[in-house]
Amino acid sequence: MPGENLSRDEARERAELLSVDGYEVVLDLRSAVDEAEPAEGPRTFRSVTTVRFRAAAPGAASFADLIAPRVNSVTLNGRELDPAVVFDGARIALDGLASENVLVVDADCAYSRTGEGMHRFVDPEDGEVYLYTQYEPADARRVYANFEQPDLKAPYRFEVTAPEGWQVWSNGAEESREGQTRRFAETAPISTYITCVVAGPYHYVTDSYTRGDLTIPLGAICRKGLAKHFDADEVFLVTKQGFDLFHEIFDYPYPFGKYDQAFVPEYNLGAMENPGMVTFREEYIFRGKVTQASYERRANTILHEMAHMWFGDLVTMKWWDDLWLKESFADFMGSFALVEATRFDQAWVTFANSRKAWAYRADQLPSTHPITADIRDLEDAKLNFDGITYAKGAAVLKQLVAYVGRDAFLEGARRYFKANAYGNTTLDDLLSVLGEVSGRDMAEWSRAWLQTAGVNALTPVVTCDAGGRVTELAVVQDGDELRPHRVAVGLYRLDPDGALVRYARAEADVAGVRTVVSELTGQEKPALVLVNDEDLTYCKIRFDEASLATLRSHLGSVTDPLSRALCWSALWNLTRDGLMPARDFVSLVLAHAGRETDVGVLQMLHAQALTAVTRYAAPDWREQGGKVLAACALQELRFAEPGSEHQLTWARFFASGAATEGDFQLLLGLLEGTARIDGLEVDQELRWDFLLPLAAHGAIGEEVLAAELARDDTASGKRHQVRCMAARPSAAVKDQAWAAVVESDALSNALVEATIAGMQQSSQRGLLAPYAEPYFAVIERIWADRSIQIGMDVVRGLYPSLQDSQATVDATDAWLAAHADAAPALRRLVLESRDDLARALRAQACDVAAG
What we know:
By secondary structure, the protein is of the alpha+beta class.
């Protein structure tokens, strides 16, 4: 991305010089529906921006940000500037600034097909055009000229001219309409990256939220083609529950007027917290039957984005170093609010088993970083929307609540909002208020938890006397940085009915290498010791030998869902770390997953078991492992309660691991209606789940997929069909998929993702081997020529991880050595992929030794 980057130092200098009084942005989007494509260049729309700003040093020079194919005119304080001179494709040079300035930029900006800037989507079902914007961290400059950094906040007024019959939304409420032009109310001061426009013939449902004298108009938006599936009432219910809780605990009224939520196509993220106009990926509108885990994930995302209205929008970090100030809090608050305010009262189970798995992986990569990261530029920022910034940060905040107490934590948040409303902050601003309300030494806590990287492992060491009583229970801590942990240690025994239940518990402050938990001395000898019971801290749990033996036989008998989830998480970490053979983890899944009551945990176990077989098991055991998993899945599918979400979950797992001719014939029978499993409804989404493995194993061909697309001629259907087409076991198919992604930029972001996902089938290692060498030859060009999102998708998705040998590690090392000057963000992606592969090889060695 030559010329499009922005460094932290440049942003700091500009913030010291400039302050922004306001923006007026005028967009003409009527070109979105022009039938004819431009003769050359991208399809564009007109963007006219007026920025009023002040300069602390009159006569100084600075720059505005804009990425556009053409700039028609630039006027600074009435002085015409030559666009050919001042605009370099990413920046507009501004010199001779006055104390008070008015900049007017008239440009033709490009519609996007990569989910960045002004994304344009054509619905294949009805030909309708839909637009939306997505900017984080720095793509507002693709839509209008601005000062693209979070600490130059300003009020915004948007005016949008749209095609006849369209609806248009922005952050502010619509104030007036004249013909096809809408004018929107001025916003409160916000950052560029959370401004937003959504436009098109969308389906729109309204409601309102009232609390005392406060009334918030609510809206829910989706494409017309999804309206029949849209459960807006459920979205509004969670929204109102969230507003009730956040108003109660934050004691600061929602500050941005209306609250619209738009579910939009081909979205790169889960959602984005644009104040007054939150955008979500439309996959949160469910076209078929899904489990409660899916509804919980959507509710979590709704509440996560709502928490951002305070953590991120009202109070914003100065620079992306402190991205955690918004993302970690929102991630924590999403689960917190689910438990406190909604029917999803087991959300901490999901957090412990799923969200933290993301964090553990990220924190063991060579690119691991402190929660407060060193973000040198925008490319660094884009890559730091990761498991550390989100999930580890949230886990550390959960530890903070245990450390300072819930009341002090929430009082600190309230004071933080009131002291910094509409402003920008750094870590010190938050720590000072938390230290004030809690009386704790936040500087030392911050140093240990926020300013160092890595994850600790906590292992119990139990000594018992001849009478079967605990004489000492200690917790041993490993890790490069030994941190203070507030933990609960639980002791479990087998009841006469076979249930594994907790009979003793103690909380302790673990510090240093070894900590004795004296409160548990004298207890009867436990069958299981669970360190970090109730998941108070962020760590990897280890087991003593007796506890591990108990879990091998009785894991499914652990009665508490959170305790059980923590045990599963710990066992998966042992497998990833090459300390437990992959086949042992698979055996645990075979023995105990059928008793798992939490469907979200069950779905996670299915994904982990497939990874264990395809990536971590000895190569000569993969086929056998896959067959036993598929057989187990089919057995559990037949035993599951008809019509239950567990039945649906086992059906999907069976399809994803189908391994024999008999498996494929059953899937075909379920698709054709010649086979039946009582209670299993094979809806359109489940049909595609069944078709993918059939395509990947050559059991169906292109004509079947074409017929299915005709049956489901929608945007979702097209994505599924593209994925299935790329999954077919043919060298010609793989060549076509590679060319479509690497040699062409014609595919949209969603179809690039689908093509890569289809191409990379674990059963097709031999077919994919020829692309290992070309991968290293093309990635630097891809990174330079494509948008950063597409670059990330290609570099991560096409890395030859399925060529799991030392030769691939060596080829990666050779590329890294020969490309020391490559973009740091690109090198980070390659390093992360290499680390995943090296981890897989270590796990395979462990499994070979066990075989």
